[in-house]
Write a structure and sequence with these properties.
Strand content: 5-15%
Largest sheet: 3 strands, antiparallel
Number of helices: 17
Structural class: mainly alpha
Radius of gyration: 24 Å
CATH class of the largest domain: Mainly Alpha
Order of helices and strands: EHHHHHHHEEHHHHHHHHHH
Number of domains: 2
Length: 359
């Protein structure tokens, strides 16, 4: 079993909107679902008769109808009876505990990076917009269907599409359980590609033309919406030197306006540019900021950031730079735990990586 449990690197600060979205989803489930899942629906409920007609239409069982079944039927998005209200309410409802936990885990892992890149308001609007795009795609596939769609999966799939474009160098920490537990790190694009193709595209193509297959189509619609938005912003920003442009050593040297703005930003506040590059997953931006920083500025780097950057340097084969950073770190820090971490990494580079490179 593989389970994503986190990603690296993470942005600085708190992702308040992302945490608020998680809180709202959990609160709605605790208030609307938990008390009503095991409670039998009343025949006097105004939606009871309509729900029975729906069950007759889809051939579902008429027994064991819960209050939550009626809530989902009323507030879920039904293409046959759509409204702006259900477009929004359906995004914050879930079919069960596993549905909720899976969605919130993905939002927790990927949402903070996207919020940091877009800003709080931009992230909130984009989240709702991707959810709406996913729901619209669902309605196209299930035109006129009375089956309700619920869940944050479409909106979160949009967040994953944005993440896929903007953070190509990030890694995802995966909990691997096969008789024993271990944590491995995989490129984020591998994990997201697996989610898109294996978890959604194949079930959509091979599944029935209704129900679960259509729901997978909604996930694909959300992912495509997020991907298209991120790519469009990136292309537009590359031409204008805006905030969504990918920052590499090549783009810093290309174009006089972009080069001047980026060089001045690094010169004025090297440590901040370094942190931004590290948190956004852009190794090249962090590297360019680091090599232009003064010795005094390098001493201002956060301990955790310095160790993480040394790991990235090692991964990219920059062993000499990594060793220089670690040796400076050891000489400037007296904390034995941090010194031990730095000594371990420096020793591994000397024993393994440099020897391998020289052979």
């Amino acid at each position: 079993m593989f389970l994503p449990i986190g990603d690296e690197p993470n942005p600085p600060g708190r992702a308040y909107v992302n945490w608020a979205l998680i809180a709202v989803n959990v609160a709605v489930f605790l208030v609307a679902a938990v008390p009503n899942m095991g409670a039998a629906a009343s025949a006097a409920d105004p939606f009871y008769a309509e729900y029975l007609r729906y069950l007759q239409y889809v051939g579902g069982p008429h027994s064991g109808i819960s209050k939550y079944d009626l809530i989902v039927f009323h507030y879920g998005y039904r293409p046959s009876d759509s409204s702006l209200l259900t477009l929004v309410t359906s995004m914050f409802m879930h079919g069960g505990w596993m549905h909720l936990i899976g969605n919130m885990l993905f939002l927790y892992i990927y949402g903070d990076n996207v919020e940091h890149r877009m800003g709080r308001l931009g992230y909130l609007v984009t989240y709702i917009g991707c959810g709406a795009a996913a729901t619209f795609f669902f309605s196209l596939l299930a035109h006129g269907s009375p089956t309700p769609l619920v869940g944050a999966s479409g909106a979160i799939s949009g967040v994953l599409g944005l993440y896929f474009v903007w953070f190509p160098n990030n890694v995802v920490k995966m909990l691997m359980v096969f008789g024993f537990a271990n944590v491995i790190r995989l490129p984020a694009r591998w994990v997201l590609g697996f989610y898109l193709v294996v978890d959604n595209l194949l079930p959509f193509l091979m599944g029935p033309a209704s129900g679960g297959g259509v729901a997978h189509g909604a996930h694909i619609g959300g992912f495509v919406a997020g991907f298209a938005l991120a790519y469009g912003l990136q292309v537009a920003s590359t031409k204008s030197g805006g905030r969504f442009a990918p920052v590499t050593r090549e783009t810093i040297r290309a174009g006089p306006v972009f080069r001047a703005v980026e060089t001045e930003r690094i010169r004025v506040d090297g440590p901040r540019a370094f942190r931004e590059g590290l948190s956004s997953g852009s190794f090249s931006e962090a590297y360019d900021a680091y090599v232009t920083m003064s010795e005094l500025e390098r001493d201002q780097i956060d301990k955790g950031d310095a160790i993480r950057f040394a790991d990235l340097l090692t991964d990219h084969g920059d062993y000499d730079v990594a060793l220089a950073l670690l040796r400076r770190f050891i000489s400037n820090n007296t904390d034995p735990q941090w010194q031990a971490r730095a000594h371990l990494r420096a020793g591994l580079i000397d024993l393994h990586f440099k020897n391998d490179a020289e052979q």
